[in-house]
Amino acid sequence: MTLPARSERLLFPLALATMLWTLVVGGSGREPNLALVFFGSLPLLYAVLRSKPRGETAWTLKLALVLLALAALQLVPLPPSIWTALPGRDLAAQVLVASGQEPGWRPLALDPAAAAISLLAVVPALAMHAAVLRLDPRETKRLLAAVALFAIASAVVGIGQRLIGGGALYATEHAGAALGLFANRNHHADLLIAGILLTVAIPVGRAGKSARAIATAAIALLAFAVVATTSRAGIALAIPAIIAALVAIWRPRRRAAPLLGAVLVAGGIAMLLVPAFSDIFARFGLAADDQRLTMAADTLAATRAMWPWGSGYGSFVPVYMAHENLDMIDARFVVAAHNDYLQLALEGGLPGVLTALAGPLALALLAWQMLSRRAPMAAWAAWGVAAVLLAHSALDFPLRTPALAMLFGLCTAAAQMGIAQWRAARL
Length: 427
Fold this sequence. Notes:
By secondary structure, the chain is an all-alpha fold.
């Protein structure tokens, strides 16, 4: 049963409200933030379930649902004879016996509650993905433009935080950097890069050079804010995003390419000469001392101990601590592997590895389809945002932050939309 026409028109306002709500409250992966985003997305999810899809269900949505169902198998109770025989469960079984409890029937996940929360955290992004596939291309482009405008506002907030050396919304070790409404500077950088790419969704293409100059100024502001985050990966990923956005907005002829390159080089040198940024660029010289390599080695050690079924989603912290390099232990504890592909292998085992591979492969297939069908610039910008998030996932955990997971769902759906629909709307 489909919604009446009047109710179905609510799909776009609900998607817009859900996206903005998530960007405001979803800047941290802590449980209160996950709950706010989840319950805030329920009206959109209800509307999606009651609405009629445009044609067949998109393969990207089918793939996501299959992977979610595969992950949900971690919550199926297993008899003690099987559960205790799984790799890495011997210590857990000994703890239960020592505390006077029988192992009994237990699911594969070592922490079932944490696994359930991890699965529920995916629902809002799936709801957004499904909703966008049901929208008109013009409505989708407005959503992308809204994200770009929000990123510009967030850039202003972040630069202000950098100037005053505080003002963070959350208690975080990244206080003093440009955080916007995020708890992690790397994740704020991802939003700002998304804003850079999605400036092409703001209607400036037919508005003349003055409007394009305004868009270029917005990109410069966003680039400045990315540097203010002090995120090394963010700064590196912003460079190709800036080039792509400027080319999309100005569409220079080949002979103008050297001029564009010279402008970008001059802008980069100007930033290097700003005294306030000297400590930021100095962080690139500390890359060899980054603890990510040690964390990766410890995560792989924990993965081998739990292979091939994994420890269960949401169980990273205690499992990692049991295999952490003793020389690296200090007052802080590691909350994530800072490599989502490795963390999926640890928590999800072989199914987690399949999930990790599915993202880049699906994005590559989307790119092939878009190339063969000559997708419009807005669709490519959305694809670029998804590519940035997946690339950054090799060094951090952006998709475990609700705001960025929701953005990923939006942008993959925008890239997946029927090319004929984009062309019919002349976008």
